[in-house]
Structure formats: C-alpha cells, structure tokens
Amino acid sequence: MFRSKLTCLLRRNKTVNPFSNVGTSSSASRVSNEPFRLSHILLFSSKTSCTSFTRNAAFYGFRSLHKGFSFPSSRRMCAAASISPSAKEGVKFLVTAGPHAQKMVGIWLFGSAAWVFSMVILGGVTRLTRSGLSMTDWKFTGGLPPISDEEWLVEFEKYKQSPEYKRVNKGMNVEDFKFIYWMEYAHRMWGRGLGIMFALPFSYFVRKGYMTVQLGVRLSALFALGAGQGLIGWWMVKSGLEEPTSEYVHPRVSPYRLAAHLTSAFGIYCGLLWTALSVVMPEPPSDTVAWVRGAAKIRRLAIPVSFVVGITAISGAFVAGNDAGHAFNTFPKMGDTWIPEDILSMEPIMRNFFENTATVQFDHRILATATLLSIGGLWWATRKLDMHPAIRSLVGSTVGMAALQVTLGISTLLSYVPVSLGTAHQAGALTLLTLMILLSHTVRKPSPILLKSLSSSVARTASNVIKS
C-alpha cells in the first residue's frame, strides 16, 4: 500500500527537462545518427569555445570545482563541442520541478550524507572509549536519559551485571560510568535524529511532486536500510553482553556483527552520496570528445580501485572487533618477523581471516598497501590522458588522501591506538571512500543522446573549419 501511494504521488510529474522553456518535436531530428568515431574528426582550432553542458544542467555540487581551472592550451589539437539544446531535452533528471527544487533536494541529501559520516565517526569514538556496552537495554524509539541520582544508580546496577564491568571495569564509580553512558546515548540518539531529519523533508518533497519515481523508490530503500541499522546495532551490542567462552577473554562484540554494522553504515553513506551527486550533476562533464574518451579509460580503472578501498575499510572492522590494533605494535615487521607463526593456527582455516588477531592485522596491512599502490597506479596510468581539469584534481587528491591514510594507520598502530588517532584513521577511511565515489561518479558514461549531440556538434564544427 505504501509503495502504491508513493508511486502515485511521484508520477504526478513526468521526467522532463526543467530547464527548457519550450520542447520541440523536431529537436530529435537534429541529432546526428552517425557513429561516434574520433578518427574521422580533425579540428585545428585551438581556441574553440566549449559550452559546459553540465553547468546548464544545474551542476550545483560540482560547479565549484570548475572555478580556478583553465581549458587546455593550444599545445595540442582539441576536439571541442558545444552541446545542442536537443541533448539537454533528453537528460533524465531525478528532480523535475526546476533548478530551485533541484538545489533544495541536493542540499538535503548532501546534509544527510554528512550526518551519516558524523554517525560513523561518533561510533568509532564510542568503540574506542569502550562505551558501547554501557547501555544494557534498547528501545526502537529511545527514551529520556537518567536525570536523578536514583535513576543513575539503577542504570549503573544494570551495567554491574554485565561481563564488561566484572572483567574490565570492576570498581568503576558512578561518574566514570556517566561518561561512557553519555557516549553511547549520544550515538543512539544521533541516529534517531538522522531518521527524523531524513523523513520529514522526504515527505515534503514527495507531496510537492519534486521527485521522480526512480528517486523516490531509491530513497525509500535507503530509509528502510537506515531504520534497520538500529536493529543491527543492538544485535551487535547483545553479543558483547554475553559471557565470554573463557575467563581469560575480555568481553567484546562479535567482529562479524561489528563488520555488518559498519558495512551497513558505509552502504547508506555511499547510497546517499551517489544519489546527491546524481541530483545535482545529472550528466558528467563532457565538454570535449577527448575528455569523454579519457573519462572512459579512467572509469575502467576507478571501479576496481574503489572495490579495493571498500574491502580495506571493511577489514578495519575485523581489526577493531578482535582488538588487533593492540597486538604487534611494530612496523613494518610484526614483532620480530614479517609473517607471524600462528597466522593459520585456527581450524577451519577460514576462521583465521576473521577471528585470528595476527591474521586479521596482517590482512589489513596487505590490503592497505594494495590500496595505496592501486591508487598510485591509477594516477600513473592516467597522468597523460586528456581529461577534465576537475577530474585530474580529484585523482591527485585521492593519491594524497591515500598516503595520509596509510600514515595515520601506521601512527595509530605504533601509538597503541589512542582515541584521537584511531578516530582520525576511521574518518580517513571514509574520506578516501568519498573521493573514490566522487571520482567514479564524475567519470561515469554520459547518456547516449549527449554522446550523439557531442559527436554531431564536433562533426559540424570540423566541416565548417574545413570549408573555411
């Protein structure tokens, strides 16, 4: 029923180009049907003006990256093209009520993504301060925190029954308990606040008819995943409230559940960020034919590199879940050896990659090195390509962030995982993933009608130059 009502509301406005005042039926006939072949185009004008199609398509989020950049000089031939109005009419916009609505929805989605980013960082602080197990019960809607001394004593007595208090924090006073309780309470309520901040604008935009069906369904799925994130979080916390199997083992949450909780958060963040970019940048920057070809080559490399970055970030959850950062606090060797002797001591062998402290840290080191090398290789392989200046800047920024992230990781390990460096390292992982998403989105394939219009415009310009 909810899906049918949502679809009914969203279909009030069809997906049209909100930036065209008049749409003509003959516009499509002006688009060339010739194949898109660069070898047939010779253009000797070094100062041909390039009209940016993406700026005319309400390129709000990416527009600031254009400032300060200049177009390629006359040192090489440039196949430039002006995008015809007919191509603009073929763009599939996710927001259909004009540039103002598009800007409003974009700001809201970017704000939601930033909120999720802060949630991940706050969750990292909660884990590093061992605050996550301070609240021994959970309600979906939450509740008021303890106010009176009597209420605080009741909560403290509940915590005293937990394995963490008995084995780690025995003798803790009420004031110290209040600190870890407030940390966990803030993390939970910050997540509930995100749900409200997302749901209210979403309802408003749907009722106003700003969104297409595609955008509405996508955001509904992200909202449902966000609601389920609270359940995943409590499922994770419950594992830490159970008695450990051995008296020598400190109570902690299951690394599998921690990885599921972090992966879900990353998935929500990536979905929101990608959707926000698609709203404000419906087409990638495609000013010239050469830039389109360069973006295609970068795209073939950026997608697998993004996968490596994501896997490395998730492996960090198993490092945290096994407290592996507090072992082998040396670099580049792990203790006195390059490879620990007990790296495959568990049976079956696959358990070692998720539960063995030595193996988990070793894997994370290998993946981090692979991430740095793959991003460096991406920069090296694309450094001579003809690409949009903003894309070149993104590639360079990603290399710098990867180097900084590796430095943060090594510093965190050598310092025995202080809260400040551990938090910075987690924030660095999400920042690096953000840059890879932005790069992958910017080099995505343009729509077929844009490619045809670009090819047609270049062919007409080349013909005019030859005739003159």
From TrEMBL:
<keyword id="KW-0472">Membrane</keyword>
<keyword id="KW-0560">Oxidoreductase</keyword>
<dbReference type="InterPro" id="IPR023754">
    <property type="entry name" value="HemeA_Synthase_type2"/>
</dbReference>
<feature type="transmembrane region" description="Helical">
    <location>
        <begin position="189"/>
        <end position="207"/>
    </location>
</feature>
<keyword id="KW-0408">Iron</keyword>
<feature type="transmembrane region" description="Helical">
    <location>
        <begin position="257"/>
        <end position="280"/>
    </location>
</feature>
<dbReference type="GO" id="GO:0046872">
    <property type="term" value="F:metal ion binding"/>
</dbReference>
<feature type="transmembrane region" description="Helical">
    <location>
        <begin position="394"/>
        <end position="417"/>
    </location>
</feature>
<feature type="transmembrane region" description="Helical">
    <location>
        <begin position="301"/>
        <end position="321"/>
    </location>
</feature>
<dbReference type="GO" id="GO:0016653">
    <property type="term" value="F:oxidoreductase activity, acting on NAD(P)H, heme protein as acceptor"/>
</dbReference>
<feature type="transmembrane region" description="Helical">
    <location>
        <begin position="105"/>
        <end position="125"/>
    </location>
</feature>
<dbReference type="InterPro" id="IPR003780">
    <property type="entry name" value="COX15/CtaA_fam"/>
</dbReference>
<feature type="transmembrane region" description="Helical">
    <location>
        <begin position="364"/>
        <end position="382"/>
    </location>
</feature>
<keyword id="KW-0479">Metal-binding</keyword>
<keyword id="KW-0812">Transmembrane</keyword>
<keyword id="KW-0350">Heme biosynthesis</keyword>
<feature type="transmembrane region" description="Helical">
    <location>
        <begin position="219"/>
        <end position="237"/>
    </location>
</feature>
<feature type="transmembrane region" description="Helical">
    <location>
        <begin position="423"/>
        <end position="443"/>
    </location>
</feature>
<protein>
    <recommendedName>
        <fullName>Cytochrome c oxidase assembly protein COX15</fullName>
    </recommendedName>
</protein>
<dbReference type="GO" id="GO:0005743">
    <property type="term" value="C:mitochondrial inner membrane"/>
</dbReference>
<dbReference type="GO" id="GO:0120547">
    <property type="term" value="F:heme A synthase activity"/>
</dbReference>
<keyword id="KW-1133">Transmembrane helix</keyword>
<dbReference type="Pfam" id="PF02628">
    <property type="entry name" value="COX15-CtaA"/>
</dbReference>
<comment type="pathway">
    <text>Porphyrin-containing compound metabolism; heme A biosynthesis; heme A from heme O: step 1/1.</text>
</comment>
<dbReference type="GO" id="GO:0006784">
    <property type="term" value="P:heme A biosynthetic process"/>
</dbReference>
